[in-house]
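Q: what does this look like with iron/sulfur cluster bound?
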Amino acid sequence: MVCLNMFIISRLFEYTVFVKQKKINCTSSEQLPENSVVNFMKYKIEIERTGCIACGACYTTDSTHFEPDDQGKSTVVGGETDEKTSSGVFDDDNIESAQEAEDSCPVSIILVTEL
Ligand code: SF4
């Protein structure tokens, strides 16, 4: 019974690595070290731009997801932006930097949500 459980766990782990390799289009095992686990997740970043004081904390903290407009107010890189809001959905392993930027905002107008 113990051997069967170990076999099942080992197969599940191999499958997890396989799926993650497929998700980032790896064609060679050399691109992803053996036994590595990469945390990809889908998440949404929203900025309530009407409250932005253009302090720059978010895009200084995380220039991957945030950038200033011509007035210094923050926008989501590659997202949909208008005068009131900016938002974008991402599917990568960089949610932590987005959350750091969220925490850095002095007026708490950034929302990062896991989808
Ligand atoms: S940290 Fe907040 S207030 Fe400062 S630029 Fe970014 S969104 Fe605007």
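The mean pLDDT is 82. The chain has two domains: 2-31, 41-114.
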